[in-house]
Known about the structure:
heterodimer, A: mainly alpha, MetI-like fold, elongated, disordered N terminus, B: alpha/beta, Rossmann fold, eight-stranded mixed sheet, four-stranded antiparallel sheet, 11 helices, 12 strands, about 20% strand, globular, binds adenosine-5'-triphosphate, binds iron/sulfur cluster, binds magnesium ion
Amino acid sequence: MHIDPEAYANLPAEDFAPLGDADRENEQIARPSTTYWQDVWARFRRDPLAMAGLCVLILVALAAIFGPMLSPFSYEDVDFLNGDMGPSSAHWFGTDRLGRDIFVRVLYGARISLTVGVVAAVINLVIGVLYGGIAGFIGRRVDMVLMRIVDILIGLPSLLYIILIMMALGSSIQSIVLALCFTSWIGTARVVRSEVMMLKSSEYALAARLTGASDFDILLHHLIPNCMGPIIVSTAFLIPSAIFSEAFLAFLGIGIQVPMASWGTLANEAIAALSSRPYQMFFPVAAICVTMFSLNFIGDGLRDALDPRLKK
Amino acid sequence: MIHASPNPPSAPLVEAQNLCKYFPVRARFFGKSRHLLKAVDGVSFAIEKGETFGLVGESGCGKTTVGRTLVRLYEPTAGAIRYDGQDISHLNRAALLPFRRRAQMIFQDPYASLDPRMTVGDIIAEPLRVQNLYPGKARDARARELLALVGLKPDHINRYPHEFSGGQRQRIGLARALAGNPEFIVCDEPISALDVSIQAQVVNMLEALQDQFGLTYLFVSHDLTMVRHISRRVAVMYLGAIVELAPVAVLYKHMQHPYTQALLSAAPVADPRRAAQAARIPLQGDVPTPIDPPPGCLFRGRCPKAVPRCAQERPALRDLGGGHLCACHLLE
Lengths: 312, 332
Ligand SMILES: Nc1ncnc2c1ncn2[C@@H]1O[C@H](COP(=O)(O)OP(=O)(O)OP(=O)(O)O)[C@@H](O)[C@H]1O
Ligand code: SF4
Ligand SMILES: [Mg+2]
């Protein structure tokens, strides 16, 4: 190439000569190879409250799964001779008015609570991510319609439709989960929508479009994986709120019915003898509190660990 | 050679004809009224096969928008894009697929243009996955081959973008662009975000690849030194329109447009290590916004030579001979 010597901005030819390998030093890999999720786990592990929450939750889950199998008592076996007994070596949490072992009943309650939490999380994820993803990605009129629907749903009084659903479908664990999930996905949908709206004009989404990828391909391969952080955080906080809602409704007498035992049902039954036998109330309530605290600590820890702004 | 044939008779590979791209913007200030941001307003040029066509201008003048519209990331508001004789201005995604293989782009920001959740191998192989090229094991081999081609280690396919420096990321972007064996690449300021010491490396690589594969480039930059070095012809843009277009030797010696003159006089740096400081162009006055531009020459607010006519009539691009085009009333 010809370059006029007296023109502006002249460069000696050697400035464009390829550099030797020695000059590549500054091009070396600067960070150790860690994936995003390894980073997240490393940060999460440094949070003592979150780790404590995780340990407690694992204990509760193990106890809920295996505890009832190991116990000599069943949650529905009535034993009138041993009713209203305080905690002892045989009945760790005591017995209720009908002589049922409260320890086993609390463990059964844990099964119900954890099931409600997990199922609510899954439903929330599937509906929330797809709904929010589609609204945010397509935008314009579709987004407007979808978001108005959400506004209407969120305006409904929750107790009203929960009671209606329970009356229509009967008090089973399925109907309570359905009632709780009726609008709970909306938070996730909104988070995903705003993230996707922001990410869809990012250069890597454009780069994907340039490969010929379809909208759905870009949504699935680029946008949703990149808003996994906020999705996980919103799900992490949804689980305890679903568990608490179930307990609260059961306490009010809406939901799981005796002899099945949800923590809320147990607390409800214990009201009658609250002053004389407070332990009947204490154990289910303590179980609710411990689980709620654990889940919320885990949620906090996840939120901090997933926050990319903390990344050095 | 540059001087020999400024206007070769061969059919151009890429052609923009009166290309316009307007973005609707909502100006809160004026209530509900909708305004048009004319990012690109009536741009015409043709790029020959095998040449490097430079596009320079200040930040915000619409260079990126021209590049993105040319590869049909945007649909033009008006005008036409012809690629190898075919009008691709309004084709849909499926109809564009064959074109996607032939025309690619390197993005301005090496940090934002690589998906942080994907491995380098997946990023590079994405065009192959989407278009189902090199199926099965061949795809992995192709990704490794591409990495080696751009001067990275083939073993890097399992790493993530954040582990790489800016220059390395730009190489990864280049490898992705090359994956489907394209013939035309829009290089949107591929080096402006990089360390000066690394800029020359990337430019060298682009030139070597051009020789190796017979590539055609649209090279976008605000660094006149680099454009001069790499391009055969250069177009100068101002506020969405081309104000001057000429073969590189003509432009840098006999520029006619007051804006080009201001641009060049503001770039006296001969040392690439200091070229980054020259990127800022100390022109007088502010760049007006391209929202609802007034009639007349767009440059007149900052033009030292403006005459009354400049306020009434927008100057058209005039052919000065020898492939030199310029839009200014003073040239009549
Ligand atoms: N998607 C968009 N929506 C609305 N306005 C846009 C959009 N893309 C670009 N613009 C506007 O169009 C104008 C030209 O932008 P463009 O990115 O093409 O400039 P550029 O020459 O590439 O600048 P730079 O040197 O900063 O990269 C700017 O005023 C910008 O704000
Ligand atoms: S037309 Fe007038 S304002 Fe525009 S560049 Fe020429 S002299 Fe300056
Ligand atoms: Mg740009």
